[in-house]
Specification:
Helix 3 runs antiparallel to helix 4 and helix 7 packs antiparallel against helix 12. This protein folds into two domains: about 130 residues, Sulfate adenylyltransferase, CATH 3.10.400; about 210 residues, Rossmann fold. A hairpin with a 4-residue loop joins strand 13 and strand 14. It has twelve helices and 15 strands. The chain is globular and about 70 Å long. The strands form four sheets. It has a five-stranded parallel beta sheet with strand order 10-9-8-11-12, with helices on both faces. Strands 1-3-4-7 form a four-stranded mixed beta sheet, with no helix packed on it. A three-stranded antiparallel beta sheet has the order 2-6-5, with no helix packed on it. The protein has about 375 residues and is α/β, with parallel strands linked by helices.
């Protein structure tokens, strides 16, 4: 049969809904002209994001010209804003000379083939400094970059299946999401992402946004994260119980974001915004230390980076929230913009502190987490 490449169409909000779902070719009879590569979790996540159109306008992994342009200017050669290289890395010298076809496999099963038209060496330290603002392997994104290998390949990809890593119900491609929003009659849609368990401060942001926006797209990241992060399955269960009890069903859609975390702070915030534009969202929430890790980035650096670009280039409205918390004097969740009291009255729990409490079986304060959500988290840590 003729093999059709996936060709996701880039869509900005407000344009005619032309985003197409991928066409999947049947697995072809493979011969000795193919090398075979077992994809790692980050590669699988990137393949999935390309396949479903979430990384549009990318239709495959970057070649050298786009890689260097992205590193130097945060733009593709075509001129479109793109902050982080999406390359297919291999150990240097792994791919034999003369091999022009690569079979991409997941657990031994063919998911795609790539016709290799370009291979080039990646300067890993240059990329690390540009994307992560550090070359230290203590940074999880830098460590993953270094482990990926210093050679990259690019070329047209034929997918035999979508390499889905999350197989539960809340799976929406960008086209699925756009159709859902249209069916609900929403003109404005605000997206929210976190890799952390949902808590009362997040709920505060959501409900403030819903006072002004037609619909809320809860789009938690479920791809590869650090080993000490709470699992995607647990986080999704927490979302479900919260939505069942505290959110208006006609105003909220829950759908997963299958990307891997890079922990690239400001530049990853831009990537997340571009992806949500592809999902059909008009607004995107960027909070304190979005996509950050440790103390590599300033508290509000992920918000400030958007000041470098005109609104029409970003293509989605960024909604910037201050850090929110429960104030014992105000007796509600507030932010620095709405609370006059000093920090002695504020209940703020870090992710590390929450994990420590859960690991020791302690209950989370009701001011921090809804009881239904706390039970989900505590039960998960007991298992």
């Amino acid at each position: 049969m003729d093999h059709l490449k996936i060709n996701p169409v880039h869509q900005g909000v407000g344009r005619k809904n032309e985003l197409t779902t991928p066409t999947i070719a049947a697995a072809e009879r493979l011969n000795d002209s193919y090398a075979q590569w077992e994809c790692n979790p980050r590669q699988l996540a990137d393949l999935e994001m390309v396949a479903i159109g979430a990384y549009s306008p990318l239709e495959t992994f970057m070649g050298y010209d786009d890689w260097i342009s992205c590193i130097d200017s945060m733009h593709l050669v075509s001129g479109e804003l793109w902050p982080i290289p999406i390359t297919f890395q291999l150990p240097k010298g792994w791919l034999p000379k003369g091999k022009t076809k690569l079979r991409l496999v997941k657990s031994g099963n063919s998911i795609a083939t790539m016709d290799i038209v370009e291979r080039f060496e990646v300067d890993l330290e240059v990329e690390a400094q540009s994307v992560y603002q550090t070359t230290s392997e203590e940074h999880p994104g830098v460590k993953a970059l270094y482990n990926g290998g210093s050679e990259a390949i690019s070329g047209p990809i034929v997918f035999h299946e979508i390499p889905r890593q999350y197989t539960e119900h809340e799976y929406l491609t960008p086209l699925d999401a756009r159709r859902e929003f249209e069916a609900r009659g929403w003109k404005t849609i605000i997206a929210f992402q976190t890799r952390n368990p949902i808590h009362r401060a997040h709920e505060y942001l959501h409900k403030v946004a819903l006072e002004l926006i037609d619909g809320l797209f809860l789009n938690p990241l479920v791809g590869l994260t650090k080993g000490d992060d709470v699992s995607a399955a647990t986080r999704m269960k927490a979302y479900r119980v919260l939505l069942e009890n505290y959110y208006p069903a006609n105003r909220v859609v829950l759908g997963v974001y299958p990307a891997a975390m890079r922990y690239a702070g400001p530049k990853e915030a831009i990537l997340h915004a571009i992806s949500r534009k592809n999902y059909g969202c008009s607004h995107f929430i960027v909070g304190r230390d979005h996509a950050g890790v440790g103390d590599y980035y300033g508290t509000y650096a992920a918000q400030e980076i958007f000041d470098q670009f005109p609104q029409e280039e970003i293509g989605i409205t960024i909604v910037r929230f201050e850090h929110s918390f429960f104030c014992k004097r105000c007796e509600q969740v507030v932010s620095k913009r709405t609370c006059p009291h000093d920090s002695a009255h504020h209940l703020v729990l870090s992710g590390t502190k929450v994990r420590e409490m859960l690991s020791s079986g302690q209950e989370l304060p009701s001011q921090f987490s809804r009881p239904e959500v706390a039970k989900v988290l505590i039960d998960a840590y007991k298992d």
